[in-house]
Specification:
- By secondary structure, the chain is an alpha+beta fold.
- The protein has three domains: about 5-205, 4-Layer Sandwich (Aldehyde Ferredoxin Oxidoreductase,  A, domain 1); about 255-430, Aldehyde Ferredoxin Oxidoreductase Protein, subunit A, domain 2, CATH 1.10.569.10; about 440-610, Orthogonal Bundle (Aldehyde Ferredoxin Oxidoreductase Protein, subunit A, domain 3), CATH 1.10.599.
- The chain is about 40% helix and about 15% strand.
- It contains 25 helices and 17 strands.
- It is globular.
Length: about 625
C-alpha cells in the first residue's frame, strides 16, 4: 500500500517506455523519492560517468505519501549525477506534478540514454509514449506548459519542462513544473537537456491507496493540527512565506552581502517579506497579491506577486504584467543582498525570468555576485561584460544578465558556468562561494556555525535543505542552540541531515519539520505503508540514505578535501553584527562530525558503519 508498486523505464535512445515492478525490498529499506531513487541510480550507473553522457540516468521519483492527503504530500524529486557538481544530485519540487505522477500509477520514471531528436514524455495513467518535441524546442518553460495543455486539449495536464538554458547547457538549469515550482539545484535540468528530453506531461486518475484508511485519516488530521498550531507553519510562512527570514537573518548578522564580504545588508528591509506587503508609491498596490499552496499543503508559503507596471523592466512588456510566482527568501537574497540590489521590482522580475526559462536563482545570483566582485576589483571589465557595468547594487545589470544567462547570450554564457568555473577561468577561484561546486544559500557560516558545517558536508554541494540547522540556531526549533557556538554542532547537523533524508524520501515537504518531529511523521507512514514503521526505523533509514549518498560521491572521485568552505569564511572574520570578529570553526567541527557519523578521519564510512546499514 501507498507505493504504486511499479516504475516506468524510458529508454530515450530506443524510444521505448516499459513498465517494471518496483523493488519492494528496496522500498522498505529506502522508503521512496530521494532514498529509493538514489538506490536505483547507485545500482545502475558508474558514479564516474560524465553527467551529460547518455550513460548517466535521470530519475523522477515520488514518495509513498506523495498523492495522499497528508499535508504537503505533493512532492517529487529528480535524482541524477549533477552537472554543476559532479556529485549526487537530488532536487526536490512541490506543486502538483508529483501528485499527478503518483496518481497515474507510477512511483518513479527512470530515463536512460539520449533521444536522437527532441521529445517529450506523455503519460495518461498506464499509457506512456514519447512524442516529437521539435515544435517546443527553443521555447520557454511557460510556453511549453501552455502549449502542451493546448495540444492535448486538457488544462489539467501537469507539466515539468526545461527552457533554452537546459537545452544549451547552462550548468545550473532546473526543471520547472506548474509554472513556478522547480527541481532547482545542481543542474538537473542540464542533464535533462543533454538527453534531448524537453518535458514530461501527465494526467493521473487512479488514486493512491493506503494500508489503513481510518488510522491514516486520524494521523493526518493530528499532523495538520500540529502545523496549524505552530507559529512558523501556522502563521509566519502563510503570511510572509520564507521571506519571513530576511530581516531576521540580517539582524542575526548572517545575511551574506556582496559575495560574502559582509554579513549584513543595509537594504534588507526593502526586499523583505514585510516590504512585499507594503503599498507601492506608483499605484498603491503591494508586490504581494496572495499566498498559494502546493498539492495537499496546509502551510501555503508560496508567493504570488506582480511588478509595478511603470517599472523599467516591464513598462513596455505587458506579458510580465500578470501575477506570477513571487520571491522566496533564497532567491530574494541571491538576487538582492548578494549583489547589493534592493529594488524589489527588479528582483521580482529576475525571479519571473528564472521561472520562465528554468535556471536556479540561488546559483545565478551568487555567480553574478562573484562576477561583480571581479568587476569591482578590475579582474574583468566592460569589454568582457559587453559594456554592462557589474557594480554593486546595479539593478539594471541584474535584470540584463538574468535574461542573457537564461537565453545563453552575451556575458550570460559565462555566468551560465556557475561561480566555480567562472572564477577559475579568470584566475580567482577563491571568489567562488561554493562547496563541491554548488553555491551557498542565504546564510553565512560565520554567523551561524552549524549551517557552515552543514554546507561543507552536504552530499549535493552547499545546501541549507540537507540539514536546516537554522531551525535550531535561529528559530529555536526544536530547541535553541547558540548560532555563534560550535560546540555540539556536529551532532546537531547529523541529526538534521538524517531526519531530512527520511522526510524527503516519504514524499512530504521539509517545511513540515518546523513543527513536526519524526514522531509526527511515523503514525502517517505506519497507517499508509505496509509493515511496521517506527521513529527509530525512519531515522535509521535517513542515516542509511546519507551514507549511501556519501558512497556515491566517494566513488565519483570526491574526497574529504571537498568537505570545506571558501577561505573567506575560514580566514576573514565577519565585519558587523553579533558575529563580528568570528570565522567559521569548521576545523574543529569536522572531525567531530566524522566521528559522529562513524567515518574515518579521511571522511570514509568505516566497514562497521557500512555493515550496520547493509551498505557493505
Amino acid at each position: 500500500m501507498a507505493w504504486a508498486g511499479k516504475l516506468l523505464r524510458v529508454n530515450l535512445t530506443e524510444g521505448t517506455c516499459v513498465s517494471e515492478p518496483l523493488n519492494m525490498d528496496w522500498a522498505h529499506t529506502y522508503i521512496g523519492q530521494r532514498g529509493l531513487g538514489t538506490k536505483y541510480l547507485m545500482e545502475e550507473i558508474d558514479p564516474m560517468v560524465d553527467p551529460l553522457s547518455p550513460e548517466n540516468k535521470m530519475i523522477m521519483a515520488t514518495g509513498p505519501l506523495t498523492g495522499t492527503n497528508a499535508s504537503t504530500a505533493g512532492r517529487y524529486s529528480v535524482i541524477t549525477k549533477g552537472e554543476l557538481t559532479g556529485a549526487i544530485a537530488c532536487s526536490n519540487s512541490g506543486g502538483f506534478f508529483g501528485n499527478e505522477l503518483k496518481n497515474a500509477g507510477w512511483d518513479m520514471i527512470i530515463f536512460e540514454g539520449k533521444s536522437p531528436k527532441p521529445v517529450y514524455l506523455f503519460i495518461q495513467d498506464d499509457d506512456a509514449q514519447l512524442i516529437d518535441a521539435s515544435d517546443f524546442w527553443g521555447k520557454s518553460c511557460w510556453d511549453t506548459e501552455e502549449g502542451l495543455k493546448a495540444k492535448h486539449g486538457d488544462e489539467f495536464i501537469r507539466v515539468a519542462s526545461i527552457g533554452v538554458s537546459g537545452e544549451k547547457g547552462v550548468k545550473y538549469a532546473c526543471i520547472i513544473n506548474d509554472m513556478d515550482r522547480a527541481a532547482g539545484r545542481s543542474g538537473v535540468g542540464t542533464v535533462m537537456g543533454s538527453k534531448n528530453l524537453k518535458a514530461v506531461a501527465l494526467r493521473g486518475t487512479l488514486g493512491v491507496k493506503v494500508k489503513d484508511r481510518e488510522a491514516f485519516a486520524t494521523a493526518v488530521a493530528a499532523g495538520k493540527a500540529v502545523l496549524a498550531e505552530n507559529p512558523v507553519t501556522g502563521q509566519g510562512l502563510p503570511t510572509y512565506g520564507t521571506q519571513v527570514l530576511m530581516n531576521v537573518i540580517n539582524e542575526s548578522g548572517a545575511l551574506p552581502t556582496h559575495n560574502h564580504q559582509d554579513v549584513q545588508f543595509d537594504g534588507a528591509h526593502d526586499i523583505s517579506g514585510e516590504a512585499m506587503h507594503e503599498p507601492r508609491k506608483s499605484d498603491g498596490k503591494p508586490n504581494l497579491v496572495s499566498n498559494a499552496a502546493c498539492f495537499a499543503c496546509t502551510i501555503a508559503c508560496q508567493r504570488v506577486s506582480t511588478i509595478d507596471r511603470t517599472h523599467y523592466t516591464v513598462k513596455d512588456r505587458p506579458e510580465y504584467h500578470k501575477a506570477s510566482g513571487g520571491l522566496e527568501y533564497e532567491a530574494a537574497w541571491s538576487l538582492g543582498a548578494a549583489t547589493g540590489v534592493n529594488d524589489l521590482d527588479a528582483l521580482t522580475f529576475a525571479n519571473f525570468i528564472c521561472n520562465e526559462h528554468g535556471i536556479d536563482p540561488i546559483t545565478f545570483g551568487a555567480t553574478l555576485a562573484a562576477a561583480m566582485e571581479m568587476y569591482e576589483e578590475g579582474i574583468i571589465d566592460d569589454k568582457i561584460t559587453g559594456g554592462v557595468k557589474l557594480t554593486w547594487g546595479n539593478a539594471e545589470a541584474l535584470t540584463t544578465m538574468v535574461e542573457q544567462t537564461c537565453l545563453v547570450e552575451g556575458f550570460g554564457v559565462e555566468l551560465g558556468l556557475g561561480s566555480k568555473r567562472l572564477c577559475e577561468k579568470y584566475g580567482h577561484p577563491e571568489l567562488s562561494m561554493a562547496v563541491k561546486g554548488q553555491e551557498f544559500p542565504a546564510y553565512d557560516g560565520r554567523g551561524i556555525q552549524g549551517i557552515g558545517l552543514a554546507y561543507a558536508t552536504s552530499n549535493r554541494g552547499a545546501c541549507h535543505l540537507r540539514g536546516y540547522t537554522i531551525a535550531s540556531e535561529i528559530l529555536g526549533i526544536p530547541e535553541k542552540t547558540d548560532p555563534l557556538e560550535s560546540d555540539g554542532k556536529a551532532g546537531l547537523v547529523k541529526a538534521f541531515q538524517d531526519a531530512t533524508a527520511a522526510f524527503d524520501s516519504a514524499g512530504v515537504c521539509i517545511f513540515t519539520t518546523f513543527a513536526w518531529t519524526a514522531d509526527d511523521l511515523t503514525p502517517q507512514m505506519d497507517a499508509a505503508c505496509e509493515g511496521e514503521w517506527t521513529t527509530e526505523r525512519l531515522l535509521e533509514i535517513g542515516e542509511r540514505i546519507w551514507n549511501m549518498e556519501r558512497q556515491f560521491n566517494l566513488a565519483a572521485g570526491l574526497t574529504a578535501a571537498d568537505d570545506t568552505l571558501p577561505k573567506r569564511l575560514l580566514k576573514d572574520a565577519a565585519k558587523t553584527g553579533p558575529a563580528k570578529g568570528k570565522v567559521s570553526e569548521l576545523g574543529k567541527m569536522l572531525p567531530e562530525y566524522y566521528e559522529a557519523r562513524g567515518w574515518s578521519a579521511e571522511g570514509v564510512p568505516t566497514a562497521e558503519t557500512l555493515e550496520r546499514f547493509g551498505l557493505s
